[in-house]
Amino acid sequence: xxxxxxxxxxxxxxxxxxxxxxxxxxxxxxxxxxxxxxxxxxxxxxxxxxxxxxxxxxxxxxxxxxxxxxxxxxxxxxxxxxxxxxxxxxxxxxxxxxxxxxxxxxxxxxxxxxxxxxxxxxxxxxxxxxxxxxxxxxxxxxxxxxxxxxxxxxxxxxxxxxxxxxxxxxxxxxxxxxxxxxxxxxxxxxxxxxxxxxxxxxxxxxxxxxxxxxxxxxxxxxxxxxxxxxxxxxxxxxxxxxxxxxxxxxxxxxxxxxxxxxxxxxxxxxxxxxxxxxxxxxxxxxxxxxxxxxxxxxxxxxxxxxxxxxxxxxxxxxxxxxxxxxxxxxxxxxxxxxxxxxxxxxxxxxx
Length: 351
Hints:
The protein has about 350 residues and is an alpha+beta fold. It has helices spanning about 25-35, 40, 70-80, 85-90, 190-195, 215-225, 260-265, 300-310, 320-340, and strands spanning about 70, 95-100, 100, 110, 115, 120-125, 135-140, 170, 180-185, 205-210, 225, 230, 235-240, 245-255, 270-280, 285, 295.
């Protein structure tokens, strides 16, 4: 049965829509994670997924492996300077020093060690996770997911709030012509866990297809299609409305391969004319967050996201009165703009 809330003809789906099966099929999707072979999951064949061996430079570590020590790349990632993989590459390239000495892969640091990276000096904080912030951004088409672009195209980072320290780290990417849900965090370890193929977090997309789609094609897409970088498949496909050559579908993938959804459909000789991510794990786009707008996740939502990634929840962020008022104003602006009304100014609080 077509979904009642599916888009009519060429009208894009509302942000608040939900997949008909996304919640009921969680147990089936969890089971499919265990049933898939390593090659299907992209685990051993995925570039960059292999971790460096801890004993590669054991003799060159600033400190021996003992309680109170932590891997250098993990400390840098937790500080929000990048994902753990990015930090590993920076260390291997000789761009990181510890207490004035060039660091190597496998190096460990202790509290108080002075780390220099990308012109910034930070003091190592081991075994203490800073308060984690996570943003949900509703990406419009026509934006890139990079901080710099030779063609000077608009970037998703242009619309994000500034940070006093650290930086926003994108949890995966969406290509230039894809819209929808994109997560950003200050915690590089969380970003790395959410992006890694072993986490097997489902990503749901709304896609408009031009071309004939039959049951045999849908069966092939569910069972697996051989792409240039290995076997890929949709763990779920829900057919929606459509007339003529245009049809809407909700489809779910468990990995974040480059242009995976588009390549799967194009392997069947049909064309993707619209593509929007509507869900990442258990996170949906709120109906009042329009394209180009962002909203900050609550402590409870962040804890749930950490549990999905297999991490302990971070300490709750302590907000000042000014921060709370700023968050309230931002929420009011989002809801006012979704109703087409002028932003509402919050009442002044009595001292």
